[in-house]
Amino acid sequence: MKTKVKAISALIAMALFTLPPDRNVFAGSNSEETRAVILALFEAFNDHDVEALVALYSADAVTRSPGDIEASVGLEPIRETYAGHFDNIPGVHDAVTNIVVEGAQGSVEFVASWNQPTEGDPDARGTLRIASFITVKNGKIVRDISYFDRVEMTQNMQL
User: Do 93 and 114 touch, CB atoms closer than 8 A?
Assistant: First the structure.
């Protein structure tokens, strides 16, 4: 009896592994469009162009980062977040180290670097590794969820 159960389980497992992935998740978007939007996001960020950044998001876009109590929805929180970055972290720049795109979904690894002058050290700089998971629909970002180590960020801000 145990042998039959093992054989049936193995057969089911083989069938599941040989099925093609469900592509319906990506309907209405393609990888080239998603990649282009994501790269435009990083270009606008590195230009510190808040309005160009906001223009890449849908009106009901959902964004979230570590430290957020809840996700933000809409363009105004996006505008405030990016404007705050540029005001509070002079010279912030993102360098993409890895990007994977399939249909509407994109994942991006990047390193943020910045100048953070202090009275004691006017040349202080910092870096932070970040991963973002972005969904694009109809040429606009509808979801942008980012992750980073808050302890690493705090330590780097004190450099």
Answer: yes
- Domains annotated for the chain, with CATH where assigned, are 25-157 (3.10.450.50)
The C-alpha atoms of residue 115 and residue 129 are separated, in whole angstroms, by 15
Average pLDDT estimate for 1-13: 46
**Which residues, 6 or more positions from 151, have their beta carbon under 8 angstroms from its beta carbon?**
none
Secondary structure (3-state) at 12: helix
Q: Of the ranges 20-24, 68-72, 75-79, 86-90, which is most confident?
A: 75-79
Token digits for 109?
């690894």
Q: Alpha helices, DSSP H only, in the chain?
A: 2-18, 31-46, 50-55, 75-88, 150-157
Residue 67 CA to residue 84 CA, distance in Å, equals 15
pTM, whole model, 2 decimals? 0.75
**DSSP β-bridge partners for residue 72:** 63
| Structural tokens at position 5 | 């159960």
